[in-house]
Amino acid sequence: MTLAYQKLIDSIVKGNEDSAAEETQGLLNGGAEPMQIINGGLIPGMAIVSEKYEKKEYYLPQMMLSADAFYAAFVLLKPLISADQIGGKGTIMIGVVEGDIHDIGKNLVKTVLEANGFSIIDMGRDVPIEDYVDKVRELKPDILMLSTLMTPTMVNMQRVIDGLKEEGVREKVKVIIGGGPVSLPFAHKIGADNYADNEKEAVKLASQASAARG
Amino acid sequence: MAEKMSPMERVVAALTFKEPDRVPVALYFQSGVQHQLKKLDYTWEEALSHPRKLFNIIEPQYTYYGADNFFLPVDFRVEGEAFGSTITYKLKAGEGFRIGIVTDWVIKEPSDLDKLTIPDPYKSGRMPIILETISMLARKYPEVPIVGFLNGPPDTVSDMRQGHYTRLFKDIAGKPEFTHKMLDLAVKCSIAFANAMVKEGACAIATVEGGFVDEVISPAQYAEFVAPYHQKIKEGISVPYIYHQCENATPFFDSIAAVKPACIAFHDSVDLKWAKETYGKDIALAGNVGVSKAGTPLLDGSPADVMEAARRCIEIGKPGSGFLLSAGCEVHHMVPEANILALVEAAKKYGKY
Questions:
Q1: Helix intervals (H) in A55-194
Q2: In this complex, which of B94, B169, B295 lies closest to A60 when CB atoms are compared?
Q3: A116 min Cα distance to partner chain B (Å)
Q4: Per-position pLDDT tens, chain B of length 353
Q5: Is A78 found in the same domain as A40?
Q6: Taking CB atoms and an 8 Å limit, are B169 and A64 in contact across chains?
Q7: Among all residues of chain A, which has the CA nearest to that of B165?
């Protein structure tokens, strides 16, 4: 690995937006291919960040600075890459359910999925049930990931799934849920396909679904 | 049959490790008052904007549910609003209700912090309404402890700083000195508001540390950015300080205990037996019947399930006094009323000394 790639990885691990952008631009100027920069810098950088989070060396404050550094680099590369290159593993629609504005967990999961080659449709937070149903029908994602941090809004996960069933699109999309108050038994109870406890688990489940699709 | 002690006598006995007639029930009613909004045909905005209406939704905590305390305010936005952030009642909360969220923050740039002053609790935001309601409750129910609620210091900052928690987390990692400055100002507001609540009749102050939980920040960050600010509040008031930590408080318990609050209240993910044995000889404990996760007794169980979970808590917490039966977190609006009543019933049935 060249020093420039190591510097890019370090910038992401340390959460330094400016130097992540500078190193990325430097690599591009030097003739590196965008996908090469993603695979050699961005993905390994975020993998180290995830590992540190798992080992409890990093917590959310550091994770979020690293996510910013990742995006500072990624925005320079994204326009240069074709859609089939970037989202090679499939498309994931992700959002926080209606009635809940807590989106930190959702944003972290989104970052790590994006760093792992998934194409993301970010629905945002406090998203009406009907919007999920309409957009699933229109954009046909492979997976829908729903998040909530609050107990009272868990019920809206069920309502989204019910809406997908009523519109006849439930069987066309995998539904994975996550967030503080929910669990695997709850996922089964409301008719979701699975539950992810953290960002790593979300990537694992999404990758398994991607492999199963071939 | 009339009980031997008033709620005030019972709670004071429990907090001071004397023997009460039975285990008291301390409840943190927050969005759980939505049951009352429905009965009284109030919106959230109406109920929080008038002392008489606020009184009407708080009073049943004791008169209907039978808790050994009143708890107010019942939303988290009071301090941020007092500083000048704008609340809009737009977030759906089920059954047609919409709760308030911050939609415009008073600190947009770091330089905005220097323009802020400590809000006067008798003039700022909804604080005067809360103070008048406390005064009304104290006059009518002198035998029931009124617990004044303060937002946890980081929660208050997240209501002041544009970008909410997302921004605050990055500030912690990237701008620690600025974060401390915001927390310092937030705590000065908390102390002023707490002392005004005490002046009007609150006899304890409780806080809920809801945003900074175990999977979010490290014990070292907690010891730097959270616990010292609770210490300042505790030192700034003259009444018992009740410290609730959301989610799994286990990694933070040493920091919380070092604050020396009168009582620590915690979630059902904390092992009550461990907490009782490790900390419960010096500090009263309140907990911890599950309420906030799918499948927990208060949320998804029957009244019999609640009674059984409460019985197990009482069995561990009651010996030696210093224990209040409580939900593991706020009583929110998805908790059936029958389950709230069952929790209180359990204290009467299983909690006698």
A1: 60-77, 83-86, 104-115, 129-139, 155-166, 184-190
A2: B169
A3: 22
A4: 689 999 999 999 999 999 999 999 999 999 999 999 999 999 999 999 999 999 999 999 999 999 999 999 999 999 999 999 999 999 988 888 999 999 999 999 999 999 999 999 999 999 999 999 999 999 999 999 999 999 999 999 999 999 988 899 999 999 999 999 999 999 999 999 999 999 999 999 999 998 889 888 999 999 999 999 999 999 999 999 999 999 999 999 999 999 999 999 999 999 999 999 999 999 999 999 999 999 999 999 999 999 999 999 999 999 999 999 999 999 999 999 999 999 999 999 999 99
A5: yes
A6: yes
A7: A104
- d(C-alpha B123, C-alpha B100), whole Å: 20
- Structure token digits, residue A189: 């109870």
Assigned domain for B192 exists: yes
Q: Which of B6, B88, B5, B30 is nearest to B206 (CA)?
A: B30
CB atoms within 10 A of CB B181: 15
State whether A93 and A36 are in the same domain: no
Tokens, residue B167: 């921004």
Identify each DSSP E strand in chain A by its residue range: 91-97, 119-127, 143-147, 174-178, 194-195
Contact A62 B173 (CB under 8 A): yes
Question: Given the structure tokens 């705590």, which residue do they identify?
Answer: B187
Same domain, A78 and A93: no
Contact B293 A181 (CB under 8 A): yes
Q: What CATH code is carried by the domain that includes residue A54?
A: 1.10.1240.10
Provide residues of B within 8 Å CB-CB of chain A: 31, 91-94, 101, 164-166, 169-170, 172-174, 215-218, 221, 247, 291-295, 299, 332-334
- Residue B2 inside a domain? The answer is no
ipTM summary value: 0.87
In sign, the C-alpha dihedral spanning B333, B349, B323, B218 is negative
Count the domains in chain B: 1
Range of the domain at A174: 87-213
Instruction: Give the pairing of strands B323-327 and B284-289.
Output: parallel
Judged by CB atoms closer than 8 Å, whether chains meet at A68 and B170 is answered as: yes
